[in-house]
Design goal:
alpha/beta; Rossmann fold
């Protein structure tokens, strides 16, 4: 590979679920966005609390492409269990940033990529003034610093990303910035750059905000006038409800009295959630819930009640793989016909099917208008990839 590759490559962080890497990867994504560079991120994670492999792909393109790439240009390898497979997926001419103690065997001994071994665990142990149990999480921020120095991420954009990620925790932000500086310093002092990948500031994100589908749905619902949310946690819809609560606490407040102008209720199950939503709709409020396939199954009877009693409601279905509990952290679009005729009887529910994050935002608003105009429950179907 000859010549610089500017703002057009894929970064993959291969880590362990529960290690705190999500925050680090979001900082990278936000820093790129703040530099005006279009970026799309995808988190592939297991359905357990911690310990299993997880991958976070960040696609950087001047054109703003959102689809994932099959191969990886820059790999950040932190997981011994997937180390060889991850290294094999890097394209020839790519770069691999890795924990220095990982063995260089098999695909991990390739000579057609650039290698950047970094003793993340040792640096965290020796350089960071933090409690021992925090150091394993801060290792991930050290790789943010290494990557930033190698590809030329703007330090101001990085700090902005960190401050945004730890918006309510200034001390945590300072500690994470210290970890990033350790990575930057180590790279300057020890590593010689020999790959072609770098970033340069653009104007490709002017007037845009960085959102995933669930946050777009929450913001669209708020803008549509939703004042009642009832929900029961289920992957991958929970972050939609959490985002709505966060937005409502910031923007659905009476400026003169400080009184909140919305209600969010975490119900005991999905049946109770849809019941609360229908009760609020019957009383005249714009109300919503969000769930996934198993929750939709439980809501069938009361959704039919809403249909025949002509009660407006909005139901977000963030689809995942079924049947039954299925694969909660994998995506699927298998609920379309299911929700259209949900419940017994001759039901025909309106179903909106957004295909982009922008359409999710727009359809969230459209759904509330349709529900009120038609006096019926309206479904908005997205999936884990959008959410």
């Amino acid at each position: 590979m000859t010549g610089d590759v500017v703002n057009d490559f894929c970064i993959q962080a291969a880590t362990v679920n529960g290690s705190g890497s999500q925050s680090s990867n979001l900082v990278i994504t936000k820093a790129l966005f703040h530099m005006g560079i279009p970026v799309a991120a995808k988190n592939v994670f297991p359905s357990n609390i911690e310990g299993q492999p997880t991958w976070y792909d960040i696609r950087v393109t001047p054109q703003g492409h959102q689809a994932r790439k099959r191969t990886v240009d820059i790999l950040i390898a932190m997981n011994p269990a997937t180390w060889e497979r991850d290294a094999a997926n890097v394209r020839p001419g790519g770069a691999i940033i890795h924990e220095a103690t990982l063995p260089r065997l098999g695909a991990a001994a390739r000579d057609d990529v650039s290698w950047y071994p970094v003793p993340f665990a040792r640096l965290a142990r020796e350089k960071l003034e933090a409690k021992p149990d925090l150091r394993k999480y801060l290792q991930n921020m050290i790789y943010v610093g290494v990557l930033a120095e190698l590809i030329g991420l703007d330090p101001v954009a990085i700090e902005r990303g960190v401050r945004d990620q730890f918006r309510t925790k200034p001390k945590a932000a300072d500690l994470n910035l210290d970890a990033i500086r350790i990575g930057v310093d180590y790279t300057r002092e020890t590593l010689a750059k020999n790959d072609p990948f770098r970033v340069a500031a653009m104007d490709g994100t002017r007037g845009l905000v960085l959102l995933d589908g669930n946050h777009a749905a929450a913001l669209g619902s708020l803008m549509a006038g939703c004042t009642v949310l009832a929900w029961y946690p289920i992957t991958p819809s929970s972050s939609l409800c959490e985002a709505f609560i966060d937005y409502a606490e910031r923007f659905r407040v009476d400026p003169s009295s400080g009184e909140r102008r919305s209600v969010a209720i975490q119900a005991e199950d999905e049946l109770a959630a849809i019941g609360i939503v229908l009760g609020a709709g019957w009383a005249g409020a714009r109300a919503m819930t969000a769930t996934s396939g198993p929750g939709i199954s439980l809501m069938a009877e009361l959704t039919g009640l809403g249909y025949y009693a002509e009660i407006p409601a909005v139901i977000f279905d963030i689809q995942r793989v079924g049947p039954s509990t299925g694969l909660p952290t994998r995506t699927m679009q298998g609920d379309v016909s299911f929700v259209h005729t949900l419940s017994h009887g001759d039901t025909r529910h309106p179903v909106l099917l957004p295909g982009t994050v922008t359409e999710v935002y727009e359809d969230a608003q459209r759904a509330f208008d349709l529900a009120e105009r038609l006096q019926t429950p309206v479904f908005v179907l997205t999936d884990l990839d959008l959410g």
